[in-house]
Specification:
Blueprint: H1 2-13, H2 19-30, H3 36-48, H4 50-55, H5 57-65, H6 75-97, H7 106-147, E1 148-149, E2 152-153, H8 155-174, H9 179-185, H10 190-201, H11 205-227, H12 235-262
Antiparallel strand pairs: 1-2
């Protein structure tokens, strides 16, 4: 928990780090606009069943939300913004951990220094995903062949072996937690960053798993609450963007701080020096 608290304190002090991801999340959400046809159909439906919708607030909210169906979600715009937001955020967190005073003037530098690293991360992730996918397909095929006995299928053995695959993939994913952190903080190559990530996770496996799950649980709860306002223009998009931004940047800050701490790096800044050691 001390690392999660350190990440939270870090973001409170360096709140400007939240800006890139928030912009990349909030602006595309604002691009969701109901068309004239959608609004006309919704109004006609409400007019014909006015008493029902007045008495049933959940149905009314669902009706209002349906006005967004078929509208422009700004997907391509969101992709472009996220492509810039994540490496920019990583660079800003690095500056904060070095004790620098982060300003809006640092945004361009943070992006330029880390965009290539982020693209390499994406490309490496695609290749890794293809390799893991191929191995998984082969494993599943072999599993079905092994669990078939004559004309019968050993269901328990099949389920057990498939669960084993899921467990291995989940555990394996944890060992890549510090991949990007190692590339940004230590300027390592893709392969060396993977090696460093594996070595680092071995020293804090359960901390990574526990905090990640905790953040995800809190995110799901807050997302459910924010979803209750989805039918209200602007408010729903704002609340959802705040939750998504907080979850994403808090996770990244936690990852960077934990990586820096367990690798005994110097110049780690925190509002309470006893939190990280």
């Amino acid at each position: 928990m001390k690392y999660l608290k350190a990440a939270f304190d870090f973001l409170v002090k360096h709140w400007i780090v939240l800006v890139p991801v928030f912009v990349a999340t909030f602006i595309p959400a604002l691009l969701i606009r109901p068309t004239a046809g959608n609004l006309r159909e919704v109004w006609q439906e409400f007019s014909l069943n006015r008493e029902y919708y007045v008495a049933n607030t959940e149905a009314l909210q669902a009706l209002i939300t349906s006005a967004k169906t078929g509208t422009n979600s700004g997907g391509m715009f969101a992709t472009i913004l996220n492509l810039a937001a994540f490496p920019m955020t990583a660079g800003l967190i690095k500056l904060g951990l070095m004790g620098e005073n982060i300003t809006f003037n640092d945004f361009t530098t943070a992006l330029s220094e880390n965009i290539v690293k982020y693209l390499k991360l994406i490309f490496g992730g695609i290749l890794l995903g293809l390799a893991v996918g191929l191995v998984s397909v082969i494993y599943v095929i072999v599993t079905f062949m092994v669990t078939f006995s004559g004309d019968t299928l050993n269901l328990f053995a099949l389920i057990g072996l498939l669960l084993l695959l899921i467990l291995v993939l989940a555990v394996g994913a944890v060992f890549f937690t510090f991949w990007f952190a190692a590339m940004v903080l230590d300027d390592l190559t893709v392969m060396n960053a993977i090696k460093k990530s594996f070595a680092s996770v071995k020293r804090c496996f359960w901390t990574v798993v526990g905090v990640t799950l905790l953040i995800q649980i809190l995110t799901n709860i807050l997302s459910s609450i924010a979803g209750g306002f989805s039918g209200i223009p602007l408010v729903g998009a704002l609340l959802s963007s705040v939750v998504a931004t907080g979850s994403t940047v808090l996770t990244m800050a936690f990852t960077f701080i934990l990586y820096r701490s367990i690798n005994n790096q110097a110049s780690l800044e925190t509002s309470d020096e006893s939190v990280i050691y």
